[in-house]
Amino acid sequence: MALILLGSFFVLLLCNIPVAASMGLAAVVGIMYCGFDLSGLPTLMSASIAKFTLLAIPFFVLAGVIMDYSGISKRLVAFVNACVGHKKGGLAIVTVVVACFFAAISGSGPATVAALGGVLIPAMVSSGYSKNYASALLASAGGIGMVIPPSIPFVIYGMLAQVSVGGMFMAGVIPGILMGVAYCIAALWGIRNDKGIVRQEKASAAQRWATFKDAFWGLLMPVIILGGIYGGFFTPTEAAGIAVMYGLIVGIFIYREIDMKALWRLMIDSCVTSAVVMFIMGCAGVFTWILTTSGVASDLSSALLSVTDNKYLLLLIFNVIFLVAGCFVDSASGFYILLPILLPIVTMLDLNLYAFGVLITANFAVGQVTPPVGSNLFVACNMAKITMQDICSRLAPFLVAGMIALLLLTYFPQISLWLPTVLGAI
After folding, report:
1. Which of 20, 165, 249, 303 sits at 20 to 30 Å (Cα–Cα) from 216?
2. CA geometry: angle 80, 141, 271, nearest 5 deg
3. Among 82, 186, 203, 199, residue whose Cα is nearest residue 129
4. Does this model's pTM top 0.70?
5. pLDDT tens digits for 254-302?
6. What is the largest CA-CA distance in the chain?
């Protein structure tokens, strides 16, 4: 059964069938093989996405699109640039910092790259950075969007692992900052011998204050969302709705960059993105159901444990599995496919589910910039009009930084658990 189910899935992937369709068709093959009634397929798909927690996903997607349309992203760039842009490598640091801020709204790696690429890549190129380097940096920093809360993968993981989404958000704060610091160091290392970079003039105190005032409403957005969640004023799902309302108020009445035409376009963009995500989750839910019902998940768990029962070696194996999976499928698909297999092992080893969730999400974040199929790489290449070979030529320092961060998160789970423990969330 495992060969039929997983084999058909990978064959379809190799035939260049989209991931969602591959999972759905493989699930149909499995259902037919097991003799189940295909008439239950729509019900299974509906049950996979008809959950209150998952309402946060379309709302956070919409909030990220609103942030882009309202000009918040370019104002954040201007403010951070005024603070550190005059230093050598300042624009590289600006890219990472702004990616962290934007990540705290969009919750998506590709969305972060797409929203910031049009502003940051041309700015870096005009300051003497190579287009290949600028694209590699932005693609890598965009992955932080999966780890810094609010994170769409955390919402999905929280539902599948039956842990608090708010607790997951808290657990992701310090790991997200850690990855940001690692990418800043890698960015400065990557240009250490580059003589062509032009330093910008140091901004005056008045200029910094002016850019801060202009970016204030954007800076306040993650404070309201995360502060409300951590303070217990609203749930992550309610916070997503509040983020949408706040973004619309800022974009329409304060920055005045969203009119009726822009409102129509951003609604269409967010609906398309949300529909894609929910369709993936619907197909993945059916795939997971047949994976579990047929006993394939438990058989694969037993097979993995037969290799070794050493906790530290299994953690390394988990990293490899999710890192490779992140090269080929999105985090939602990966969670639905792999968690039914691995969660029983995690429970048996008495690993903390919050730290494990952060770890595997960070693996997908790094996987998004790992050739040959990293999704962030394709988005960055499209934004910069370069080839995959071009961007991969400057990717090595960021991959090394990402791997180091992964190892720290793997063997020092306290990095993830300290903040939610202090705040009493877990």
Report:
1. 165
2. 95
3. 199
4. yes
5. 999 998 888 999 999 889 888 888 888 888 888 888 888 888 878 888 8
6. 72
